[in-house]
Amino acid sequence: MTQHRTIRRYKNEGIDWQTLEYAALTASTSEYLQSYTIIRVTSSDIRHQIARISGSQVLQQENGELFIFVVDSARNIRWAQQEDPNIDISRFTDWNAFLAGVFDATIGAQSMLSYGEEHGLGGCYLGSILNDPQEMITLLNLPPYTFPILGLIMGVPDDDPDAKPRLPYEFTCGENSYPALSADLWNEKHESYNDQLIHYYSSRSETFKHTSISNGARDFTDLLMKHSSAPTKHRLEIGTILQKQGFSLPQ
Ligand SMILES: Cc1cc2nc3c(=O)[nH]c(=O)nc-3n(C[C@H](O)[C@H](O)[C@H](O)COP(=O)(O)O)c2cc1C
Predict the structure, then answer these.
(1) Ligand 1 within 6 A of 6 CB?
(2) What is the CATH number of the domain that holds 237?
(3) Same domain, yes or no: 176 and 236
(4) Is the CB of 149 under 6 A from ligand 1?
(5) Rounded to the nearest 10 degrees, what angle do helices 17-25 and 95-118 cross at?
(6) 202/89 same-domain check
(7) Which residue numbers in the chain have pLDDT < 70?
(8) Which residues on adjacent β-strands are paired with residue 155?
(9) Residue 8 resides in a domain
């Protein structure tokens, strides 16, 4: 588990995708509602279109199984309406329902990734499918009350990157309250993490630098600066698209 690295290149070898799907589907699920659906993409046309939407290098290759995790209240609404066509569906479309779908889909995806990693596979999440959620909805025939939240590509690793250093423990874990760092400790940890990342990035090969989502950022400060001015693509429309899909998520 502590050996995780995102893998972005895969060998041309088949994998046991059914067991991976099963590993996802047996994960914990909020209120046992199972508010998500997994779509495995096997059509090369659809895959190319997702590659275009995502823009991610990882989809510029044919290898690896691609799964799209979809927040799904549609199935539960249909199921309940079969019992009572006039049922109030607001409990299936509100913030709680949407968040439950996001939790379920994300936990399912992480279970798939962790199971795969334990069994010699590697994977890469594709949050970049959110570069154009409306196109993803059309492409995958997603009905009302669903939303594509995350992609995950899994395969036999054809790459062996170093593990990326995480932020210092003092920043990210607190005990009983939010971590309180003195200004001195903050500055010390801030600088040492930047130094660590400079070393990490400079020791990587040119090929791998280009496949990184970090866009060649020099250190964590540079990553945040680049992030703050990155193009938003269609992501600012997510609220409107969710509303169009039937979710009711007031501010
Ligand atoms: C929700 C989420 C979305 C992500 N989306 C992408 C993506 O679109 N493209 C990509 O190459 N990596 C993506 N990643 C992978 C991250 O870039 C990667 O986890 C991070 O850089 C840390 O590297 P590591 O996983 O090797 O430790 C995503 C990860 C998460 C958790």
Answers:
(1) yes
(2) 3.40.109.10
(3) no
(4) no
(5) 140
(6) no
(7) 1-2, 204-215
(8) 122
(9) no
> What is the DSSP code (8-state) at residue 157?
B
The structure's pTM equals: 0.95
79 shares its domain with 143: yes
Residue nearest to atom 7 of ligand 1 (CA): 126
Ligand 1 atom closest to the Cα of residue 6 is: 26
CA of 5 to the centre of ligand 1 (A): 9
pLDDT value of position 75: 98
Decide if 11 is inside a domain: no
Q: Is 196 left (phi over 0), alpha (psi -120 to 50) or beta?
A: alpha
Whether 155 and 60 map to the same domain: the answer is yes
The pair of three-digit structure tokens given for residue 208, joined into one six-digit string: 């791998």
Note whether 235 and 224 are same-domain residues.
no
- Indicate if 126 and 21 belong to the same structural domain: yes
- Phi/psi of residue 123, nearest 5 degrees: -155, 170
For the chain, the residue count is: 251
58 lines ligand 1 (CB under 6 A): yes
- Which residue from 111, 112, 172, 213 has its CB within 8 A of the most atoms of ligand 1, so it is best to mutate? 213
Residue 197 sits in which domain range?
Answer: 169-228
Residues 144 and 186 in one domain: no
Tell which residue, 2, 19, 3, 44, has the closest CA to residue 154. 19
Q: Model confidence over 195-217: pLDDT tens digits?
A: 999 888 777 655 555 444 366 78
